Amino acid sequence: MTAPAPAPSSPPPAEPPAPLRVGLVGYGLAGSVFHAPLIAATGGMVLDTVVTAHEERRAQARAAHPGVRLAAAPEELWARADELDLVVVASPNKTHVPLASAALEAGLPVVVDKPVAGTAAQARALAALAQERGLLLSVFQNRRWDNDFLTLRALLESGELGDVQRFESRFERWRPQLKGGWRESGAPEEIGGLLYDLGSHVVDQALVLFGPAVRVYAEVDTRRPGARTDDDTFLAVTHAGGVRSHLYVSATAAQLGPRFRVLGSRAGYVKYGLDPQEAELRAGARPAAGQPWGVEPQELWGRLGAGVSPVAGDGGRPVPTLPGAYPAYYAAVAAALRDGTPPPVTAAEAADALDVLEAARRSAREGVAVDLA
Question: Are 235 and 171 contacting, i.e. CB atoms less than 8 angstroms apart?
Answer without folding.
Answer: no
